[in-house]
Design goal:
single chain, mainly beta, 46 strands, 0% helix, 476 residues, 5-stranded mixed sheet
């Protein structure tokens, strides 16, 4: 990837929606297992294991996705596997762990169990009159890795630092860099300046996001190599520090007002959560954030010496018992019950034996089709009750009435009227048919076809709907 010119892409805003729920938290102040002292960064591997750069304790701690302590490595020093206030941590797709060690001006690489692999930083002058020297650090802060194993490091250092993003391959060979020396780094035509922090992340498309503490915004290097001013303009995006990206490209930013802000992959503001405090879902200087493959968000709540995990709570479900019954006989194709479970649309073919089904509470269910159709359009089975409703614990039996179609005609010669109108009637239902002659005409007879029909001279007669019936009134 080439790191070069800058363009501007302002944020647009959407109505906030709160979807991230507090799930659990772990950690406390100290130096024991599952304790932290000024933790600075957090990362999650493909198995859901969580790594924390515990800076003042000069170590990396590893946990399960539920916060159970697994292991740790590191002591204070400058030898292989030692640290001097580790700042950033990230994990590649093979499980290798990269740690920025600013006190020793280097990046160290480990296995997922903490076995030392290698380190890199060429010692010597960091800045020259021609700008920063490739591959040398003065204050490596944040670190991120892309799907190809390329490693990106934010190299800070304030007024005397190089203040840039440096790209290496997985063995530490220099590839490219973006930035320049000094407290304020001007990119391209001078349309933006930035000061890097430890906040850096890479999405699935290889876009590199990093926090600009000078402009209170987020910069991104896109796939074509352009440095894009990606997130800017929000009044409450003050002193952003940590950044994480989920598999859908949504971006999460920790902010100095003790909130987490979430943006879409196109830069639209989606939601924020958090407040100042030490309760569940509250923060005291959240300085890093990471997202696992399931979309769970892990926030390093540094001032409270803990990790908080957020995600979508499993939906509350109701267990309904559903079945159907045919009134009036027949054997049509069975109806289908449609519902939602765990946020996913599901369906169940009903039987006349009750079935239990779990449904997301409060969601709408419905039954199709209505009417049920048999082998002929002259008969149907029509519901005697609504075929939609809201999930509950109710036991429901859907009743379908067997119906036949009654066709009422007047012969082609005309001369009168008939009642009732043509329509559907229940199987075996008695229906009174009546013929009435117009002035100058006389009723002659009924001609009926179908089981239960009537053929005769009575002007009125009750027929029995034992099948589809056609009745024709004849007048003279």
């Amino acid at each position: 990837m080439v790191l070069n010119a800058i363009t501007v892409k302002p944020l647009s805003f959407a109505k906030a929606c709160n979807t991230c729920n507090f799930l659990l938290a772990w950690g406390s102040a100290g130096s024991g297992n599952s304790q932290f002292s000024a933790p600075q960064s957090i990362a999650v591997d493909s198995s859901g294991n969580v790594y924390v750069a515990d800076s003042n304790n000069n170590r990396i701690e590893k946990f399960s996705s539920t916060g159970n302590y697994i292991s740790q490595w590191g002591t204070h020093g400058s030898g292989p596997g030692q640290f001097s206030n580790p700042m950033g941590v990230t994990v590649d797709s093979s499980g290798n762990v990269y740690v920025t060690d600013p006190g020793n001006d280097r990046v160290e690489k480990f296995t997922d169990n903490g076995a030392y692999i290698t380190q890199w930083n060429t010692m010597g002058t960091v800045m020259t009159s021609n700008g920063p020297v490739p591959g040398r650090f003065t204050d490596p802060l944040g670190v991120a890795v892309d799907s190809s194993g390329n490693v990106y490091v934010t190299d800070g250092g304030g007024n005397y630092g190089s203040n840039r993003v440096v790209e290496f391959n997985g063995t530490g060979s220099f590839i490219n860099q973006c930035g320049c020396g000094g407290a304020l780094c001007v990119i391209g035509s001078g349309s933006d300046t930035f000061i890097v922090t430890q906040g850096i992340a890479v999405d699935a498309s290889g876009h590199v996001y990093f926090v600009n503490s000078y402009g209170d915004d987020i910069l991104v290097v896109n796939g074509s190599g352009a440095l894009v001013d990606y997130m800017t303009g929000r009044a409450d995006l003050v002193q952003p520090e940590g950044i994480g990206v989920d598999s859908a490209g949504n971006v999460y930013v920790t902010v100095s007002n003790n909130t987490i802000q979430k943006f879409s992959s196109s830069g639209n503001y989606l939601t924020s959560w958090g407040s100042t405090g030490s309760g569940n879902g509250q923060f005291n200087n959240p300085n890093a954030v990471a997202v696992d493959s399931s979309g769970n968000v892990y926030v390093l709540d540094s001032g409270n010496s803990r990790v908080e995990k957020f995600g979508d709570l499993p939906p509350i479900t109701d267990s309904m018992t559903v079945s159907y019954l045919i009134v009036g006989g027949g054997n049509p194709a069975p109806p289908v019950f449609h519902y939602v479970l765990a946020g996913v649309s599901e369906s169940l073919t009903l039987t006349q034996v009750a079935k239990s089904v779990s449904v997301d509470a409060g969601t709408t269910w419905y039954v199709t089709p209505n009417p049920l159709i048999g082998s002929s359009s002259s008969q149907q089975w029509y519901s005697m009750q609504p075929l939609n409703g809201t999930a509950s614990t109710t036991n429901i039996q859907f009743l379908f009435q067997h119906q036949y179609y009654l066709t009422m005609n007047v012969s082609s010669t005309g001369g009168g009227t008939v009642t009732p109108n043509s329509g559907w009637y229940g199987a075996d239902e008695g229906v009174m048919i009546t013929a009435k002659a117009n002035p100058g005409y006389k009723f002659k007879s009924w001609t009926g076809t179908g089981s239960g029909s009537f053929t005769g001279t009575s002007t009125s007669h009750t027929i029995s709907m034992k099948s589809a019936i056609t009745e024709t009134a004849n007048f003279t």
